[in-house]
Specification:
6 helices, single chain, mainly alpha
């Protein structure tokens, strides 16, 4: 039974990494669940309570940041609500056409179209699109780094 749970945890940890790129999967949450699962499987002796609390807090912070980072990037570079909506719609459409990079390209193009629809000039629309792109890339990068660390600790705990 423990072997099955460890394999399920490994699948969760890998799915967590995939979830950093595919927005339909909550990447950091799946990775954290993998840590909890292997800790439970090994009678809570593999990781300290402090480690699990810190990892849980980082998971919560990353989930929050996933929603805030694009908005912060957009605000810093002067994006409007239409730019944000265009970015979200472009991200969803892009993921279907060129996965997984379509998410990033789609967000940029969607933001650009949204800003142009809001009446901004080409250079201001590009600037706002760039801000949203930076926010999205930053969020994805941080999630990927976290899930890679979790996968490292998971594999180390398996051995």
């Amino acid at each position: 039974m423990n072997v099955v749970l460890i394999i399920i945890g490994l699948i969760l940890a890998i799915a967590g990494m995939v979830g950093c790129i595919l927005p339909v999967l909550p990447g950091p949450i799946l990775s954290f669940c993998a840590l909890i699962l292997i800790s439970w499987t090994k009678n809570w002796q593999i990781f300290s309570q402090t480690f699990l609390i810190v990892m849980g807090a980082i998971t919560a912070l990353l989930v929050l940041l996933d929603y805030v980072a694009p908005a912060l990037g957009a605000k810093k570079y002067g994006a409007s609500r239409r730019g944000l909506w265009g970015s979200a719609i472009g991200m969803i459409i892009g993921i279907f056409f060129i996965p997984p990079w379509g998410m990033i390209v789609g967000a940029f193009i969607g933001a650009l179209v949204g800003e142009l629809a809001a009446g901004k000039s080409g250079s201001k629309a590009l600037r706002a699109g760039w801000g949203i792109l930076i926010g999205n890339v930053l969020g994805v990068g941080l999630k990927l780094a976290f899930t890679a660390v979790v996968l490292f600790y998971y594999i180390k705990a398996m051995l």
